[in-house]
Amino acid sequence: MRVDPSPAWLTLRGIHKHFGPTHALKGVDLDLVPGEVLAVIGENGAGKSTLVKTLTGVHQADAGELHIAGQLQRFTRAQDAQAAGIVAVHQETVMFEELSAAENIFIGRQPMRALGGIPGLRVIDWAAMNREAQAVLDQVGAGFAATTLVRALSLAQRHLIEIARALSQQARVVILDEPTAALSQAEIRDFYGIVRSLTAQGVAVLFISHKFDEIFAVADRYVVLRDGASVGSGRIADADEQSLVKLMAGRAIDQIYPSIPHRPGEVLLQVRGLSHPTEFAGLSFALRRGEILGFYGLVGAGRSEAMLALMGLNPSATGEVRIDGAAIDIRQPGDAIAAGLAYVPEERQRQGGILSFSVRHNISLAGLAGPRTGLSGTLSHGVWLSPRREASLAARLIERLRIKTESQDTPLSGLSGGNQQKVVIAKWLGLNPRIVILDEPTKGIDVGAKQAVYQLIAEMVAEGLAVILVSSELPEVMHLAHRTVVMRRGRQVGEFVQGQADAETIVAAASGLHHTAAHGQTA
Asked: Is the pLDDT of residue 493 over 70?
């Protein structure tokens, strides 16, 4: 963290941006200082994306001023911002997978050399490009060769290429837009080191994240946006999560989580000895009607893998699964669906929905294979899909889940993260399931969208559904789950009743550390 203030290299003053009648930015001010991390915090729709696009020249402000090193600037295109040393690293990396890391770093600006003394004839200087790319990759601690094809790299490694590209352009400002959304905990810790390396080199970093632990770990200062306007700013050292949530959401943190009464009914699901040769072993638990059972653990604990096994998506798994006391042989997802299970996966954009499909088509996806579309009967008319029945199902679920969309025909990609998640949940609710497995249901969405998902969970439980909530966000599990199973390295190491264990006790169980203030049962 910086102590001595430095003059801002980039300043925005009174930035306004309209899109027709929508006032997206309302007089936003901010300062980017060399060697500091500025966190921009806000819910979906607060104006963060518009702000980033204005800084990078994609959008032009309608009013206000942008100064760089004290000089008034106006970007009319993205190339102007790049030439000024402003580079953005986005959540979704866009790369050419069949090209090498070096080629992606220098795409469109490869170093050239003359060929054989022929006037005007120049070719790519491959040796220079690979050498310069390796230098910036080593600078960010990439640990792989510049000649490695991108298709062979993980998502975290691809983020390193994006950051290396920024460094190769002599970036003065690096914008990190939700850069850790798909990274593991270990990769996130490595990422913190990369941010510190950037600031040590005098780079000004603008950091956008929904995760408060990340904001407090890397940021020096913050600006909070709400409805396109700056509503608060200051030093992170002087702030806490409650104050920031109240600024960004206009309500206190204790108002985010709904009250979910615990009125469990009969045992609906009984699992005994659920095991996998490499992922998990000996899981045994029960789930009652009208109950939320949480699963908490660090990355690699085996929680998601166990849920996939319950859905017939982990064929090497063994164990006994009973629903209403009757043994169920789940060999494939269809068996689980027929038994009344539904699974909302962690990666909603890759596994939960099809971004290019409309909201209506995404909602009807789960009902295409059979007649279990409880809200409107079968979706088919003979061998053909019935557009009328599909539209009726979509209309009911859009209203029930309060999905914000212009129409049923809007592509899923056109919705906010929270509304995308609602569509994925709606897809399964259309089958009238009895048990809903939610795997990281609020991953990558803001506080307001989280509150909407939490309220939906409360409504599902009130209607008698049983919910399994898999989450790596401890406050989420502690506030919502009536009981929580803690896993570590594929093993079930504890089970805690809501209100009978503090955060330290649960984290200690998940990490294998000894904690004396234990409540509940641990193994």
From this structure: yes
Residue 521 has pLDDT above 60, yes or no: no
10-19/63-68 β-pairing: antiparallel
Query: Are 287 and 269 within 8 A, CB to CB?
Result: yes
Sheet with strand 37-41: strands edge to edge: 86-89, 173-177, 204-208, 37-41, 221-226, 229-235
> What CATH number is attached to the domain comprising 77?
3.40.50.300
Domain count, the chain: 3
Is 386 a domain residue? yes
Q: Is 228 left (phi over 0), alpha (psi -120 to 50) or beta?
A: left
Question: What is the 3-state secondary structure of 9-57?
Answer: CEEEEEEEEEECCEEEEEEEEEEECCCCEEEEECCCCCCHHHHHHHHCC
Whether pTM exceeds 0.70: no
Residue ranges making up the domain that contains 305: 264-340+434-494
The pLDDT assigned to 271 comes to 94
* pLDDT of 432: 83
Q: 357-395 as b/e, with b when 16 or more CB fall inside 10 Å? A: bbbbbbbbbbbeeeebbebbeebbeeeeebeebbbebbe
Looking at residue 488, what is its pLDDT? 87
Query: In angstroms, rounded to a whole number, what is the distance separating the alpha carbons of residues 372 and 359?
Result: 19
**Is there a contact between 244 and 236 (Cβ–Cβ < 8 Å)?**
no
The amino acid present at 229, given as its one-letter code, is A
Q: Are 419 and 398 in contact (CB under 8 A)?
A: no
Q: What's the CA gap between 498 and 500, in Å, rounded?
A: 6
| Amino acid occupying residue 245 | V
Strands 173-177, 86-89: pairing kind:
parallel
Over residues 399-414, mean pLDDT: 83
